[in-house]
Amino acid sequence: MGFGDLKTPAGLQVLNDYLADKSYIEGYVPSQADVAVFEAVSGPPPADLFHALRWYNHIKSYEKEKASLPGVKKSLGKYGPASVEDTTGSAAADAKDDDDIDLFGSDDEEESEEAKRLREERLAQYESKKAKKPAVVAKSSILLDVKPWDDETDMAKLEECVRSIQADGLVWGSSKLVPVGYGIKKLQIQCVVEDDKVGTDMLEEQITAFEDYVQSMDVAAFNKI
Fold it and tell me: Where is this region: Disordered (predicted)?
């Protein structure tokens, strides 16, 4: 994962696309993740990359407070879309560490006791290192459109009902009301889900269960994180 080289137009374009439905690099508040990426950008992105420029100006306003922002700053290659190759050097260093471990030992027919012991120690170290690597949790960012019955529907109560839905692996984000015509507004609300625990079918079933307020629910955008 990563953004590529953030000092190039291509890297800034990846950052802009990544921030199209996000306010921050991770989560819903400024953090050390934003600081790490901000410091890798050489200056304000061009005006046509408005998502990246919005984020850059917002994080810049925290310049005096960046040391106190939450989280632990990681290498740049630990952030960004998973589909982009990490060109920061950290991934290559990890691969080199793995390559340096000789799993098969010497090709000599007769292996000394010392060589055998070293090979077994290195194999144990390699297995231990692999075991300590955290499992990757697949997540998705989902933008939902929740439509009321008419213009008399209490939209504040409708949103309260939606946010009352709680589940392991579900985090609600920002929301806004969007006009759809004839004085009717729909609720557009963001959420992040763990793919193995929460699906759109479950969300639709629980949201449309508030039938006094909700006419229907649609998925407006679905992006893997």
Answer: 78-117
Write the single-letter amino acid at 18. Y
The answer to whether 190 and 134 are in contact (CB under 8 A) is no
CA dihedral 49, 53, 56, 58 (to 10 degrees): -140
- Count of beta carbons in the 10 Å neighbourhood of residue 70: 11
**Whole-number pLDDT of residue 207:** 96
Q: Parallel, antiparallel, or unpaired: how do β-strands 139-148 and 184-194 relate? A: antiparallel
Q: Tokens for 112, please give them.
A: 């000394």
The packing angle between helices 9-18 and 50-60, to 10°, is 80
What does the alpha-carbon distance between residue 170 and residue 193 come to, in Å, rounded to a whole number? 5
Burial class (CB in 10 A: 0-12, 13-18, 19+), 177: middle
How many residues belong to the chain? 225
pLDDT band at 90 (very low <50, low <70, confident <90, very high): very low
Per-residue pLDDT tens digits for 18-35: 999 999 999 889 999 999
For 136-191, write each residue's pLDDT tens digit: 789 999 999 999 999 999 999 999 999 999 999 999 999 999 999 999 999 999 99
For residue 87 the two structure tokens come to: 């060109």
| Amino acid making up residue 146 | V
Beta bridge partners of 186: 178
DSSP letter for 87, please.
-
Q: Is 158:213 a contact under the CB 8 Å cutoff?
A: yes
Dig out the tokens for 194 from the structure.
């763990």
- Rounded to an integer, the average pLDDT of 103-119 is 64
